[in-house]
Amino acid sequence: MLITLISGVLFYKNLTQIKGPSRSVLKIDFEALQTLDLQVYSTTLFLRQNQGADITELKDENIRIKELLDILNDINKNTPELKSSIVKIRNHFLEKQKLMDAYELAVKDLRVNTNALIPAYNVLEKNNIKFVLDKHDFYRECILDSFMYISFSHKENENRLSDDQKVLGQIVSYASAPNPDLQKFGGHLDVIHKRVKEMDVYLKSFKEVSIAPEMKIVAKFFQENLQAQSDQNENLLTFMFAAIGIYLLFMIFILRKT
């Protein structure tokens, strides 16, 4: 009698585990992941506005995207609508991961070259490499224009930096021999210009693309699975108590007979 009851309960438990959602789907708060798009944009914008900010948050969000993709792989795509939504979400986040990796690289490269700009200028000063334009130290003006462009990358500041790069290119080309210190200084300006422009393009992509409708469909499926799992657990608990009750009644019946 005891073996039969235990076998029945275990059979029901195994049956519900086969039909129910996978543990990886139930392990993560899917509703919190729905805000990931906005969080990524906010983090990238903060990194753009604050050059010294910690980049760890962007790395953490990239990890959460990988977790979301793992969840999508475990979901049983039982309707065309759900299947289509999952494909769109997956493609969206795969593309977003590529953008985040490129953005992180641009942030690091921009910081390295920004930090190296003043030391490179000091080397020019030490070696007495000077150039005066409109009664101003041209190389110092290049640094100021670079910092202005990093802080406010509108067209006017970009044009100033572009003009500096053109003048610097002419200085290098007119020299009797290549000057590695001057070329290094110009290289920092080139990277700063390139990376700031790239980061602005990435920020626009982070902001414009949205998959809110698809996320709602998958979130609804996720909540239904959670409710189904809760119902199955309640039923399993009920069966266990019922089995215990039946076993106790059977034992009482046997004892009375003996």
What layout of secondary structure does this protein have?
Layout: H1 2-19, H2 23-27, H3 30-33, H4 36-49, H5 56-74, H6 80-126, E1 132-133, E2 136-137, H7 138-151, H8 155-174, H9 180-208, H10 212-257
Antiparallel strand pairs: 1-2
Q: List unreliable stretches of 5+ residues.
A: 18-28
Largest sheet: 2 strands, antiparallel
Strand tally, please?
Answer: 2
* Overall 3D form: rod-shaped
Strand-residue fraction?
Answer: under 5%
The SSE string, one letter per element, is: HHHHHHEEHHHH
Q: What gap, in angstroms, lies between the N and C termini?
A: 17 Å
Helix tally equals 10
Rounded average pLDDT: 79
Can you give the helix content as a percent range? over 70%
- Rounded to an integer in angstroms, the radius of gyration calculated over CA atoms is 32 Å
Quaternary state of this entry equals single chain
Write up what this structure looks like.
The chain has 258 residues and is an all-alpha fold. α7 packs parallel to α9. It contains 10 helices and 2 strands. It has a two-stranded antiparallel ribbon. 84% of the residues lie in helices and 2% in strands. The longest helix has 47 residues.
